[in-house]
Amino acid sequence: MDFDWIRDPNTQWVFAGTTLLGVSSGVLGCFALLRRRSLLGDALAHAALPGVCVAFLLTQSRSLSVLLLGALVAGLLGAAAVQAITRYTRIKEDGALGIVLSVFFAVGILFLTNIQHTGAGNQAGLDKYVFGQAASMVGKDVKVMAICAVIVCLVAAALFKELKILCFDQGFASGLGFSPGVLDGVLMTLVVLAVVIGLQAVGVVLMAAMLIIPAASARLWTDRLGSMVVLAGTVGAASGALGTVLSLQALRLPTGPLIVLAATSIFLVSLFLAPRRGLLPRLIRFLTLRSRVARENTLRSLYETVEETGPWDRSVGVSETAARRGQERVATEGSLKRLAGEGLVARDGDTFRFTEAGLGAAYGVIRNHRLWEMFLMYEGQLGVDHVDRDADYIEHYLPETTVDELERYLRLHGLEPKIHPRLANAG
Fold first, then answer.
1. Alpha-carbon distance 334 to 349, whole Å?
2. Residue 91: which CATH number?
3. Which structural domain, as residue segments, surrounds residue 39?
4. Which residues fall within 8 angstroms of residue 128, CB to CB, at 6 or more apart?
5. Domain end residue (candidates: 217, 246, 275)
6. Given a cut of 60, is residue 423 above it in pLDDT?
7. If we measure between CA atoms, which residue out of 397, 400, 395 comes closest to residue 285?
8. Of 275, 302, 334, which marks where a domain is finished?
9. In terms of domains, do 116 and 216 share one?
10. Angle at 213 between CA 267 and CA 98, to 5 degrees
11. Verdict on whether the full-model pTM lies above 0.85
12. Which of 49, 117, 312, 361 has a C-alpha 20 to 30 A away from that of 205?
């Protein structure tokens, strides 16, 4: 792999610019995501295009600061249009976003086409704002982007508590004396500024991805907003840096799409591997839970079978155990074999019987089930024929502290579940 690009000053500016873009868009994307305004960035990015064109027509200047100022003004007008449509009409926000996106973008394309017909469009580089061209950034451009990124991050940090309240409880924010409309306007302004930063690098088409994907990736890893903001900024920066490196190594591939694909790759890793919300850990937890439920149901079936006739060391056939719970014979036999492997039951040919350890394990299952049954009958005034299924669902999830509380509560009221003394002693 060739790393000669590291010594190229222009490449260093591009690398810095895309990294700054990733940080600012990741931070702002968290608040937009939690406010359920993931498409807000898309709408405002498209709304910024006519501003870029009008700024060029008025000044005939290619200066990034001038063009981005026009984009900022147009983006703010787009944000105001969204708020006005939502507030003064019966159209909901998603409809307002769609209207603003399509109308502003259509106007921008008309301006851009007119400019290109004059022969000045390509020279101005305005066509690059649609899809982005990070390679065209120079030191002066990156300095402007850096100023905007610092402003976005500082304002987000200064108003972190207020924006947090706005995202999670707008009514509580009003009760504290904050104006949700003002805070929402500030958030929209920051999003517009973040969009403006990314126009030259990834363009209006892909800018929404830079706001959504890093925030969505961070959301999979944490439940705390502060950690989410830091993670999203880190993911955004890593995406910008990785996309730039890939673009430099793979000639003729544009930087903007590679940045988005890099962010998507990080999202896919998060989607599969995040400890709490990742698909793989969730699958492992599901399979573990299903195995434990099957194990406990089999213990309970075996107990209820021998409880009726005794003795406790009686051997029970697979079919008899399966019939007790209405289970399939194959599934029950598999569970009994696993219990035998754990030393909880002993196998005698085609029959199985409890070991002392198995009696102790069965005691825990039966205790949970019958305590909950009695609680439902006593506290919920439910009939005997209405509590078994509810108890069957919850017995596998009751923590030991809750079971102890149930037992103390029922004993206080002179109630105690019927469990054979030997079984209780085994537990």
1. 14
2. 1.10.3470.10
3. 12-275
4. 136, 200, 203
5. 275
6. no
7. 397
8. 275
9. yes
10. 145
11. no
12. 117
